Amino acid sequence: MIFVTVGTHQDPFDRLLDAVGRLDVDEEIVVQYGHSTSRPANAACVDFMPFDELRDHVARARVVVTHAGVGSMMLAMSEGRRPVVMPRREAHGEHVDDHQLELARRMGSADLATVVEEADELAAAVAGAGGATTALGTKPGLARDLSAYLAEVLDPA
Question: What confidence tens digit (pLDDT) does each residue in 26-43 have?
């Protein structure tokens, strides 16, 4: 199964969901679409789900595709999944700034996520995911580095 989540942010993330709709896979796709207006025809779609159900989908998924929200990425990694991450972008009206892009690039450089910045990169990233997993414990100092990074992004003064 491919599980896709856009989190709970109030702005739609149709750019990601439109890319999901173009995936040509012979596999179940489940999409949590939040406030987005796009509904991929090739997927079972739900607006929101309880956290336990969300975690269950992540745990069962072969591939987790997510926005670059901290909670969504950490949930995927806590369930041993290496997420395919597409950050929301300010230029597309998907968020108020590009902090998700910065965080996604950081996760990619730490080799904890596969980062997809453009919609046309999603199909290759999903095809190459192949059940990729990650273990947070194998990255010494990661929690410290992420905490410092988030503190800087949230309070750059």
Answer: 999 999 999 999 999 999
Q: What is the number of domains present in the chain?
A: 1
Q: What tokens appear for 57 in the block? A: 């989908």
**Tens digits of per-residue pLDDT, 133-157?**
665 545 556 656 666 666 666 665 5
The answer for residues whose C-beta is within 8 angstroms of residue 115's C-beta and 6 or more apart is: 85, 86, 87, 104, 105, 107, 108
The 3-class secondary structure across 124-143, one letter per residue, is: HHHHHHCCCECCHHHCCCHH
Residues 6+ apart with CB under 8 A from 153: 99, 102, 103
Residue 42 lies in domain: 2-154
Question: 69 is written with which tokens?
Answer: 């929200």
Low-confidence residues in the chain, pLDDT < 70? 130-157
> Residue 99 is part of a domain; what is its CATH number?
3.40.50.2000
DSSP 8-state symbol, 41: T
Rounded CA separation 110/155 (Å): 22
